[in-house]
Specification:
The complex is a heterodimer of chains A (about 140) and B (about 375). Chain A has about 140 residues and is mainly beta. Chain A contains 1 helix and 8 strands; from the N terminus they run αββββββββ. In chain A, the strands form 2 sheets. In chain A, strands 6-5-4-7-8 form a 5-stranded antiparallel beta sheet. In chain A, strands 2-1-3 form a 3-stranded antiparallel beta sheet. The longest helix of chain A has 8 residues. Chain A is globular, with a radius of gyration of 16 Å. In chain B, a hairpin with a 4-residue loop joins strand 10 and strand 11. Chain B has a 9-stranded mixed beta sheet, sandwiched between helices. The longest helix of chain B is centred in the first third of the chain and has 15 residues. Chain B is built from 13 helices and 11 strands. Chain B has one domain: Peroxisomal Thiolase, Chain A, domain 1 (3-Layer(aba) Sandwich). With about 375 residues, chain B is α/β, with parallel strands linked by helices. The chains are: A mainly beta (about 140), B alpha/beta (about 375). Chains A and B meet through strand 4, strand 5 and strand 6 of A and helix 4, helix 5 and strand 5 of B. The complex binds zinc ion. Zinc ion binds next to loops of chain A. Chain A: Pfam families: OB_ChsH2_C (PF01796), zf-ChsH2 (PF12172). Chain A: This is OB-fold domain-containing protein. Chain A: It comes from Sphingomonas tagetis. Chain A: InterPro entries: ChsH2_C, ChsH2_Znr, NA-bd_OB-fold, Thioester_dehydratase-like.
Amino acid sequence: MTDPRPAGAQRPLPKPTPETAHFWEGTRAGELRLQTCMGCEKTYFPPRFFCPKCGSRSVKMVKASGRATLYSYVIAQRPVPGFTPPYGICVVELEEGPRMMTNVVGCPQTPEALQLDMPLTVVFEPKDDTITLPLFQPAGEQVR
Amino acid sequence: MKRKSIAVVGAAETTDLGVIPNLSQIGLNADAALNAIADAGLKPSDIDGVATAGESPIALASYLGITPTWIDGTGVGGCSFLMHLRHAAAAINEGLCTTVLVAHGESGRSQIAPSAPPSYHPGSLEGQFEKPFGVGWAPTMFTIPLLRYMKTYGVTLEQVAQIPVIQRQWAALNPRAMEKAPLTVEDVLNSKMIAYPFTRHMCCLVTDGGGALVLTSAERARDFARPVWVLGTGESAESTMISQMQDFTSSAAFRVSGAKAFSEAGITQSDVDHLMIYDAFAHLPLYGLEDLGFCQPGEAAGFIGDGHTAPGGSLPVNTNGGGLSYMHSGMYGMYVLQESIRQMRGIAPAQVKGAKISVAHGVAGWFSGSSTIIFSNEAP
Ligand SMILES: [Zn+2]
C-alpha cells in the first residue's frame, strides 16, 4: 500500500460555490490559489470574499508556491467510500501560512514514511471535468 | 461573585444505561426528564423552560405535556447541555422562566429513532475542503491534532495510553460503568487500530442513555432537598473544520470557556476538588488540563503519569470512568454534568471525600465548541 488514491467514483467530490470557484479553476489549471487581504496583508484559506482577520472585502487572489510541510495526520483504518485503508488524512501547512486538509501521495501510508514537518509539494489530481484535487507528495519526488 | 446565581435542584440519568433496546431517542429523553423532575420533587407541569439537543426542544416539551415560556435548542454537539445550563442561568436570572429542564437522550448504540447525524453538502466548506480527503466521522477528525501535540511536547504514545488505563481504574469503582475490566498500557496500545495513533481503547464507547437536570434560581433552590449551586459558566467556539483549528496543541475554545467560568466563579484552579473533562478520545484530558490552567502547556501527560488524576490522586478527573469506560451515547456532555453533580451531592460511586467545588468541562465536535460549568455544594 503506497498510495491512498481512491478506487473509483465514490470519493466525495467538492461542489464549487461562487465564493470558491476561483480555487477549483486554479487546481484545474495547475495552480494552488489563496487570497490575500489588501488591507492587513493576511493570506488565508479556505476561500471567501473577505478577509477573516479584518473583515475587509478588498482581497486579491495569489498563487501559492505549492510548497508545504506536514503539520499533523491520522492513518484511517476503516473504509470510507472511495478510499482503501490504510490511508493518511493529512493537514499540511503551506509556505504562505494557511493550513489545508489533503492526502500525501507517493509514499507509504505509514508512521515511518509520514514524518511531521517533512517537506511536501502540491500535485494536482483530476477527478472529473470540473474537479481537480490538490494532493501533496514528498518534496523532490517526480511530479506525476 | 455573581449578582445572581442558579442551582441544580434535580438531576438524574436514564433508569438504564448502556444498551437500552426498549426506548427510542425521545423515550430516553423522557425517561431521564421524568427521573430528574421526580428527583427535584416536582411534576412536569412545574417546568416552564425546556432545553435539549438532538431532539427538538419543542417536540420534547410537547411529549412531556409542557407548555414552556422559554426553550433552547442549541445543538452544536456534545457540550450543548453545558451551554443549555449556561443559557438557562441567564434566562432564569432575567425572569424568562423559573424552572428549567435540560434533557438529553440518545440511542447511540441501538439506533432506535435517532436524529440523523449532520451531513455535509458537497458545497459546504467541509464538503469542499475536508470530505474529499477521506474523513469519516469523529474517529478521523477529533484525532488529527494529537501527533502535532506529541511532537511539540515530546509526549509518547505510551503516556497517552495511560489515560484510558487510569479512567478504567475509576470505572472499576462504578457499578454502572460499561467497561470495568482492568486495562494496561499494553492492552491499550495493542487493541485494534482505529485511526493511527488511536486504538480502540483510546476511543469512546458507543452506548444508549440519557440524563436530565432541573434548574432554578439559587434563592428558590434553598427550598429543595439537595441543591448544587452554579458558581460560574463559560462557553466558546472555534472552527467546525478541524483542519482550521488555530493551534493543534491547544484549544482556543477551551481556553476562553474555562477562563470565563473561573473568572465568574471567582476561584482559582487550586480551589477545585474534582474535575470532569469530556473524553470522547484519550487525548482530550491533556488539552483540558492545560487549557483550563491546571497544568502548564506540555505538562499534562506527566501530571497524569504521576497519578494526580487517578483514584487517590490530588485532582480526581473523570471519576465515573469517562466516555472511554463509563458510557458515551454520542453527545457525552450531559454525563460530565451528572457526575459533577453526584460528587457535589456526595453520592458518587467513587466519591471524592469532602469535595466542595467541581468543574465540568465539555467539548463539541472536534474542538469546535466548548463549555465549562463550575459547581459547588456550598451556596455562593
Ligand atoms: Zn485583512
